[in-house]
Amino acid sequence: MNALSLDEVTKYVDENIGSFHEAKLKSIKKVQLTQLLKKKNPYLLKAKNVATSEVFIRSIVDAHLSSQEETMFGDFLEGLAQFVCEKTYGGSKTPGEGFDLDFTRDGTRYLVSIKSGPNWGNSSQIRDMKTSFKKARRIIKNKNIVCVNGCCYGRNRNEDKGDYIKKCGQSFWDFISGDSDFYKKIIEPLGHKAKEKNDQFMNEYSMLINRFSRQFTDIFCKPSGQIDWEKLVEFNCGRADMKLPEISI
Q1: Contact, 55 vs 216, CB < 8 A?
Q2: Domains of the chain, start order
Q3: pTM here?
Q4: Over 60: is that where the pLDDT of 249 sits?
């Protein structure tokens, strides 16, 4: 095992975290109101007694951004994990399908599929991962090979899943870094320049909320100011495509 300094981690984060923030900005700049309205559940928002355009728009925009951010930041964390393991154990991304890391530690070869958190997939996706693990064992034919599902955050008390091992949070970062406190040490580098990047994002976010709120009011609110839920549901759920007036920017 090779030692990994926190300065190296900080340098990697500084050079790569920008891609996450840029992806966030790109996502918020290209999203369209009609796209969000077709994807979100109007019945749920009515049941929550949403009554104003701004609250409605914030609800659907925040839900969209939350799902987008999880994927974007998951990609960044996967890259960070690969960097850490490359430095400590000579790990590399495997050419095999479904694997993000291939490295040897203490005489055992590990094939790792990295996910952001522990609840990352449905039964079908987990079955596909297990199939990839079994296929790799058949091809490699190495008795000292262990397949691992590594999750960058969360916890999992029962790591032995039979066909593979599942390591989450502290256990995963310790596994690839050799440092049981590494999961805490990366917090500070991840927050470097976060305020500066977030200020830029919030400026775009505020303009989007204002713009979409105005557009939503013009199209989906009655002259009295009330949300026209029937019109909204017709647009979201109706059999025929509903023609909307041109949305001014």
Answers
A1: no
A2: 18-77+193-249 (1.10.3250), 91-192 (3.40.1560.10)
A3: 0.79
A4: no
Predicted confidence at residue 54, as pLDDT, reads 95
Indicate the pairing of strand 108-115 with strand 145-151. Answer: parallel
* Percentage of the chain lying above the pLDDT 70 cut: 94
- Total number of residues shown for the chain: 249
55: its two tokens: 């609250």
For tokens 């199209």, the residue is 219
